[in-house]
Amino acid sequence: MNKYFVTAIGTNSGKTIVSAILMQAFQADYWKPLQTGLEDRDADTVHGLLLNDYSVIHPERHWLKRPASPHEAADAEGVEIKISDFILPDTDGNDLVIEGAGGVMVPLNEQDTILDLIVALGAEVILVSNYYLGSINHTLLTVACLRQHQIPIKGIVFNGEENPYTKAVILKKTGLPCLLDIKQEKKWDAFLVNQYAVKLFDYWI
Length: 205
Prior knowledge:
Elements: E1 3-8, H1 15-26, E2 29-31, E3 34-36, H2 42-47, E4 57-58, E5 62-64, H3 70-77, E6 96-103, H4 114-121, E7 124-130, H5 135-148, E8 153-159, H6 164-174, E9 178-182, H7 190-203
Parallel strand pairs: 1-6, 1-7, 2-4, 2-6, 3-5, 7-8, 8-9
Helix pairs in contact: 1-7, 5-6
């Protein structure tokens, strides 16, 4: 079983879309260990973006009401988040796509971050990078942080209207492959996700 942890250089980056594309491509299971906010549940979104009948969506370990950083949302509900809370679901041999919350340094509690969760789960990272002023710095810092903790990185998915200068310098300085380019799509549906899932195999190493 391959375990891919989808993280990003920030929030609202497209992690859920990337997760759905990976699920469709590999008929993989999905797990969002930690969800904050009652609306726009990511598990519901990916469910509506799939065309295959093989992927299983596993329940969150923590689903917190407040749409905030996990440590803040947990404190508001009197919940203590511990790394030991998170146990990989049984996928019956399917690959597993794990979607994180925000970026790698998002706090889970006073000590632990998403980075610590990735280490504990032993997953390979797929990093979502966006095109905006400052994204080069944010991407390189994220990669440096992951490598400092010996976390394997499969590659980078670029999301947004392409800036070739940004993309080129990120790939050169990190030495990582581009796994996929996602355009600024107006509306996502299962058929569009499937198109990107097919395209993924042109990039996948």
